[in-house]
Amino acid sequence: MHHDLIDGVPVIWTETPGPLEATLMFGCGVQDETFRTLGVTHLVEHLAMSTLPRLHFDHNASVSLSITDFTCTGRPEQIIDFLARVCTALTELPLERIEKEAGVLAAEGSGAADPVTGELLSIRYGTQGLGLASFSGPGADRIPLAAVRETVARHFHAGNAVLALTGPPPQGLRLPLPPGPRTARAPHPAPRRTGPSWHRADVPGPGLLLSCDLDDQAMLLATHVLCQRLTDTVRHEHGLSYDVGGSAVYVGPGRGERSVQLDVREGQEKRVAELLWQEALRLAEEEPTEAELAEEREAAREFLTDPRTLDMELCERAADLLLDETHLDAETKLAQQAEVTPAQVREAFAAAMETALLLVPFQVQQLTLGLPDRSALPAADCSGRTALPAGPQYRPPLLTRARFGAARKVRLVVNADGAWWQDEEGQVHGFPYTEVVGVEVHDDGRVLHGLGNCFVAVTPELFAGLGPALAAIDAAVPEPLRYPLSALRATG
Question: Does the structure show a pLDDT above 50 at 486?
């Protein structure tokens, strides 16, 4: 790898086969936003890309949890032009296009993580930082203009950028970005749920989230062994799933999350979740075989020594530089994996299982699973309460109670401290006002979003006589956290 500096931007490059590829990265993403400003980085990216003319070569841009990048592939002169235009656009954003680009974002509807991993991160960290992965937020048309300007000033400058190139920098390459210091990222919020527990959500299939050190090659091998065992069991033996996948999410030095997720045949959600947990427990209790580890080492060697992965290695190195993370090259990874023993794999996975979050689709009503000590895997709730607090109570409208017997058990409490409601099954949901991250304002209702991956709908469709409740909410929640219902959200 070679290192240069152009206009204050570090440039990492190496010679690879094929045309020249460029990736201009900025150290910012969804995790740097708040619920109230969710989508602002993606909006900035769209505004910048909207300034480009029609280009006849590959180019794109994306926003992940921690990185925003602008990429292109082409001749050197095309690379030079693209990067200059992007840098110029980031310093002179066409703010008059916000309304139009907000509509484009609503149509795109993409997320920063796959649905299962995103939901698991939200359960782990709440509605903040990495936990924002599963949320759409107030809507792109409700992002304050001040948040757009602040995001550009804080993140999109030379001090917070790295350029990765698959060849030497073309002569005449310029990166006209304003100067600035490396963005000082706030520490990641502490996990709100450390596990183990199981949860239900609107997801396409079951998933498992484990906290670990992403550089721990024993844990990496353990995850690969688990995925292969699930493929053999859930797909080949039982025919219940097609795809078994895994994701890795950087949290901080020595900290990360690894997820395993499966799609599932309709009606088999519970069985697949049970098999996932069963195989995870087995790996935590029994060492993998030498043959299993040999297979995973060989798979890693084939992948990491393939010349086509040089582009990935280059971008990983650039991202690690932005995130101040130690970079392990392919040779180091393979050398470390060669030294890993079956006992170390089991030990690493058993330690990670102490943080396990199991996620299942809503179709799974009940799940009886055990922990390694044979105690029951607990089901989690969002409030930690077993009963509603004292305060004014609101019930569903009379007609709703008459038509649906279960609605007679539903209650809402809005008091001076917060809002909570009890569902048909007697479970209590809600949070104090100190944990409110956003309030969607309807003409005659409010939807409160809380820090703990929870919301409370205080609307006349669900509850009657809400006048005092709405007044209490508006008096308690700061005005900057309130926003009108997005005009881009489907209501039909």
Answer: yes
